[in-house]
Amino acid sequence: MSIPVLKFGGTSVGSPERMEEVARLIDDGQTKIVVLSAVSGTTNKLLDLGETIRVQQIESASIKLNALREEYRAFVETLLAGSHLIEQGYSICKSIFDEMERLLWVNSFAAGHEKWILAQGELISTKLFQLYLETLSMRSVLLPALNFMRIDEHDEPDLEWIGERLQQELAPYNKQHGVYFITQGYICRNAQGEVDNLKRGGSDYSATLIGAALKSSEIQIWTDIDGIHNNDPRVVQNTRPIRQVSYREAAELAYFGAKILHPTCVIPAEERQVPIRLKNTFKPKEHGTLISEESSGLAVTAIAAKDGITAIRIQSGRMLHAYGFLRRVFEVFERHRTPIDMITTSEVSVSLTIDQSSQLKQIVAELEKFSEVNVDRDQSIICIVGDLLAEHTEVTRHIFEALENVPLRMVSYGGSQNNISLLVARDQRDTALRSLHQHLFTKPTAGDALLMA
Ligand code: ADP
Ligand code: ASP
Ligand code: MG
Fold it and tell me: What tens digit of pLDDT does each residue of 353-371 get?
């Protein structure tokens, strides 16, 4: 079944007016699956609420909960103004917030309760949106993500299972045309069947998993910007949208910090060859970015940065002329289920980076049994993505010129044909991004001539 999937992020459903716009955007009479995030800001508030309950600050939690109740009451009042369904809107919110309120008083408030709270953002937004579509007489069906979205014991989505369950959910409507299926992004069940989530920004991942599982014609991700820009627009001025990128390039940019996409959301789309189109809900006519087999054709496509990186240098005299040393090192990380992002080696030492530091203490203790270990926290990876970087020797020259005054902790080059990664201290990150942008995208000498492959 080749149903397109359209995902709308937090800002795209961030107010009643934005939801009305989403209804207009999807209303072309064609069956589609619409994946929604929580209203922007809600997930942060729910996260905060859960933490407040966990530390037993019940009074403060109660104030926060009531503020959210009020916020949603006002939301419903505007979204469903004048409709006979308004009472239904109020009662959707009431039952969710009443249930949350009960959690203020449970004796053993657990991680599972916090995850349940987090899931309510997407549950409210989808229920309210679907009700709104009813007021417009748009034929819509709520597909509960908790019935089909599942991660396994390693927190990996189970694509086969997701596909089978989705087909079952859709089967009753097989012969109907023009049905808008509305479902929640972000939320899922885990291997124990509990309510869980696909990590922050996970609605993108929900959309690509659904699109891949159903082998959709296209996955559209609608957000508040006109596609992937060539640098982080929150840090650098005069960034530009990229018209097309390959799955590989997009996957690298997402993984290495381009916030517009969830870090691993490109993988299922690439696996099943379903193109992803990024679009701007504020400017729907703009081209946006198409992610498919076709690369950008540019020597340098884009730059991204990922924070919160820990660098570990492992030195050992025994590494000299020894084999098996790297295996021992990697086994330590494998035992602690900690992925390594960057790696560089010399004859006597190896430096690598991780972004999950929950097991750091144990990892260092094990490494210290056979080597000397130095740890640098609060680093950032800067990732430069492009096509056939190696053939463009001037690219590397411009990179090093741009970073003349930025101390580089690590450089990783040649691991793939389309990625150069650099490690800098977090407080050097913005300077590095801006200077690289200037040298790679705006300098007359390094300008468009350099950009064309
Ligand atoms: P949504 O709520 O729709 O999922 P996000 O806030 O997660 O939206 O992602 C969109 C934001 O990503 C943009 O507003 C922009 O500030 C940020 N961003 C960071 N890097 C990039 C990039 N390279 N291209 C485009 N946007 C980026
Ligand atoms: N609401 C979730 C978050 O804020 C998921 C998403 O928006 O993609 O992280
Ligand atoms: Mg997002």
Answer: 999 999 999 999 999 999 9
Q: CA-CA distance, 429 to 162, in Å (whole number)?
A: 39
Indicate whether residue 200 lines ligand 2 (CB < 6 A). Answer: yes
Place domain 302-452 in its CATH homologous superfamily: VC0802-like (3.30.2130.10)
Ligand 2 pocket member 40 (CB < 6 A)? no
- Is the minimum distance from the CB of 185 to ligand 2 under 6 angstroms? yes
- Residue 418's pLDDT is 84
Asked if residue 232 has its Cβ within 6 Å of ligand 1, the reply is: yes
Q: What is the pLDDT of residue 417?
A: 78
Domain boundaries, the chain: 5-224, 302-452
197 close to ligand 2 (CB < 6 Angstrom): no
Q: Which residues of the chain have pLDDT under 50?
A: 445-453
Give the Å distance between the CA of 439 and the centre of ligand 1. Answer: 23
Nearest CA to ligand 2 atom 8: 201
Tell me the Cα Rg of the chain. Answer: 24
DSSP state letters, 418-448: TEEEEEEEGGGHHHHHHHHHIIIII-TTTSH
pTM check: above 0.90: yes
Predicted pLDDT at 187: 98
CA distance 254 to 246: 12
Give the per-residue pLDDT at 393: 76
User: Relative to the CA of 224, which ligand 1 atom is closest?
Assistant: 14
Question: Which CATH number applies to 5-224?
Answer: 3.40.1160.10
